[in-house]
Amino acid sequence: MGKGNVVLKQVKAPQKDCTGIPVALSDATIQQRKDKVLKKMQERGLDQLVIYGDVEHGGNFEYLVGYFTRFEEALLVLNADGKATLVLGNENLNKASKARIEAAAVHVSLFSLPNQPNRSDKTLKQLLEEAGIAAGKRTGLVGWKMFTSSLEDNKKIYDVPSYVVDAVKAIVGEDQLSNETDLFIGEQGVRTINNANEIAHYEYAAALASDCVLDAMDKLEIGVSELELGDALVRNGQHTSIVTIAASGPRFVKANMFPTANTVKLGDPIALTVGYRGGSSSRSGLAIREAAQLPEATQDYLDRVAGPYFRAYCAWLQAIHIGQCGGALFDTIEAVLPRAQYGWSLCPGHLSAEEEWMSSPVYEGSQEKLESGMLFQIDIIPSVPGYPGTSAESTVVLADEQLKQEIQKQYPDMWERMQQRRAYLKSELGIEVSEDVLPMCSTVAYLRPFLLNKDSAFVLKPGTEQQ
Fold first, then answer.
1. CA 102 → CA 56, 67, 82, distances in Å?
2. 307, 3 Cβ separation under 8 angstroms
3. pLDDT tens-digit profile of 88-128?
């Protein structure tokens, strides 16, 4: 496996470094968020925003409110003058006073679970009018997804329940309504850039996910059950951002996606993934100790799949920088890991926040500029027929000198962790990462393709030029 500037060698494993103490968003950060949204509304000529949220799609709602509404639907109605009203169901109405921004509340029992008591005094249209949604107002509807089709009018497609869309349209009119989700997550969207406080808030989760995956890798042995591995991945009562994966051997047996009593067997493909609000970590490899244990048909697994993947991962870390167009980073990965040979089909890297995948400026032909404060998942997924997969998904943030100074001043312990992570990448893994990259966890680029060998991982050979 000396081919291609990548070698498998004995290295010191990274240290677990999650502090175990979540960092709250400050009042100043919440005010900054609201100010950013109001400024964008003014730039777009919007009189009001209607922001939808539920347990699966709460990121944009939570950005200002501070929480998601668990098992109920909700709306935040925000006027251009800053006045806010929450529209809440039966079991979240009492949470209105807990919101991070000052907001009135309107009770809409239709947002509650089935068969709960329903209001019968006012229609949904009347209640939404009471919440401030008004006729003659230029209105943006915000769900969780902006649409980017070249064949549709993306501003007129809504990912919000139709009964809500219909009621809003009945008030403001079809012509006055548009999908404005990109105000939050699109190019120059308010949520795409994080300040030092937000980075510290998310770093706790990214590092926790990383520590959990490292624990699961260390726990992995012949005979260990998926349930035991899953137990290593989820902890501290934290809300996961994606389905937790602890799989050994064939996946999705009888459509199941969750860990079972199935045990690790020699030669099994292994998949381990956990994500928390601010970052996820995953590892894919094989339950073997050395190349000699590979089946005859996949004896070249390191050269055909895992090694090229790691090389592309290193190229990503070396090439990404502030001011770069997302399309240029896409082209870098295409050059190092051609899709025609390696079968990846999604964006090679995307933004993360409350959602595991918020949006991505890294796509073919993208002219979107990468900016300081962007929180990235390194998410390149090769798929080569006949071969097991490989993965080392992890989280980094881009930071210019000003943001670095703010982090160093406001969160010196986190700054020190980030510097130690950069030092590990260089000294142990041979990766000279871009100056703009701050690792959000300790296991960035740490990949053991043979997961029963706890001492060996991929490194980049000394002298490798930047891709």
1. 24, 14, 10
2. yes
3. 999 999 999 999 999 999 999 999 999 999 999 999 999 99
